[in-house]
Amino acid sequence: MQPPPPSSSQETILILAPSGRDAEMAAALFAREGWPAAACPDFAALLRELTEPRGALLLAEEALSAERMPQLIGVLAAQPEWSDLPIVLLTSGSSSADRRDPLELFGGQGNVSLLERPIQMVTLLSAMRSALRARRRQYQVRDLLEQREQARQEALEANQAKDQFLAALSHELRTPLTPVLLTVAALQQQDGLDDAVIDDLALIHRNVELEAKLIDDLLDLTRITHGKLILHRQVADVHELLHHTVEMCCGPDVLPKKLAVTVSPRATEHHALCDPPRIQQVLWNLLKNAVKFTPALGCVTIVSENPAPGTLQISISDTGIGVSAEVLPQIFDAFAQGDARITRHFGGLGLGLAISKAIVDLHHGSLVVRSSGRGQGATFTLTLRAVPAPAPETADGGRLDRAPVLPFRILLVEDNEPTLHILTRLLTRAGHEVQGASSVAAALRLAREYPFDLLVTDLGLPDGTGIELMQQLRVHRPITGIALSGYGMEDDLESTAAAGFHTHLTKPVEWSSLEEALRRVRAELA
Question: By C-alpha distance, which of 89, 246, 260, 182 is closest to 425?
């Protein structure tokens, strides 16, 4: 799209020639050419006119002085990057030895052309025509930059709107999952359950976890897109992470399909400086894909090795549907699953590999895939830098005591009635004293009557937020707490930490995660 032509005011030629008839003659000459011009009576008037974009300046040398020039130079220096206002300077043409070069008055600033008087009108017109042509090109650059900035702002606003939508959607999807998981945990604690009920509860638990994983993938993609995925590195045993991943992935999915899963941990250097949950997330995605895309009676082979000192590789191979040559280059792109038939048949969002690749890149490792084509299976290879194993822990090696947590007096605030009910039951069964509320106002009333020592609260409440509640409670005495929320972006975690919460648990909340958080709070307060 062509940018609009500059307005006449933007093309106005400002004239400052205080002696003789230069200003009058130039203005009349420019008028005949159809160029708007304005003769400035003095230097102050010129500076006022330059507060708006103009086409060019026609200045007589005698109008300039060493005292006035700093102001004009300041205006020229303050121009936007796209602007270089053309100046045509009429000089006397004298060449006395003591005469100062007129360009020195500008101190290197300004786009200045010199015309010596007496001057022919055709020369002046030619110089001004060139100046205006150059100025129009500058305006075109300005308009293009403004269009690009507007497009950038619109894209930024669209991304922000998308992020806000995904965060709100995540919250709404997560909230109903919490009472389901907690109810399953409460039922699993009962004695005398027959095997069929135990299996059914495990099935419910796995599927709720899968739903939460899909939600996490959407949020992880947003974090990665905006460079907000933060790693918490520590030395971890990747073999141990792999073992846990195999336990998670290869039970209910493998048995019905009768897959043969072989694990060969050959690496002698199998520790890495990494974010353990994130590396386990990568292993989970790779192994889950291998299991999902391998037909019944197929094979999945997992091998770790050290191809070179200081290098750790984990390869996951399958005898599944394979990857065609045309799909291989896009296999790590978000939402890529080859074609629509794969999505319809196998399900999923096509985010796991994209997220895994981004996580591995942040670890300065590599993730590659090989496949001979459709029906030929695939091999994904994760490479990380190996580090020495940490020294063995002593008997009291800093691990938290797994004995029951000493009881807390808990103020529990949750506006979702099923979650409030089941959390109260589980916390009470674990030995804690619990007082429940479903709003900020109700919680503050309870706080005046009940000597609690721990706040466990949802962040989104009908009459305020859990952060506001914590801030009001801490006015009267120091208190710590555990935040529960369907919002789990880094900004959310930073906000709760700044408000005084010890832990931020993202919904759906597992009972085991809440137990662990209570144990950590108690250990820190001890």
Answer: 182
What's the pLDDT score for residue 336?
A: 59
Q: Given the DSSP bridges, would you call strands 481-485 and 464-465 parallel, antiparallel or unpaired?
A: unpaired
Both tokens of 367, joined, read 């993730």
Coil, strand, or helix at residue 81? Answer: coil
CA neighbor of 465 nearest in space, from 489, 490, 441: 441
Q: Which stretches in the chain have pLDDT values below 50?
A: 1-7, 340, 343-349, 394-401
Which of 58, 89, 84, 59 is CA-nearest to residue 139? 84
Amino acid occupying residue 194: D
pLDDT reported for residue 403: 58
Token pair belonging to 309: 């000192």
Which residues does 106 contact at the CB level (< 8 Å), separation at least 6?
A: 69, 73, 76, 87, 112
Q: Is 339 helix (H, G, I), strand (E, B) or coil?
A: coil
Count of CA atoms in the C-beta half-sphere (13 A) of 387: 11
Q: β-strand 234-237 against 271-274: which pairing, if any?
A: antiparallel
What are the backbone angles phi and psi of residue 148, rounded to the nearest 5°?
Answer: -65, -40
For residues 54 and 37, is the Cβ–Cβ distance under 8 A?
A: no
Q: Which is nearest to 209 in space by CA: 513, 508, 511, 505?
A: 508
* Rounded-to-integer distance, Cα 303 and Cα 315, Å: 5
pTM: 0.53
Q: What angle do CA 310, 315, 320 make, to 5 degrees?
A: 170
CB 280 within 8 A of CB 264: no
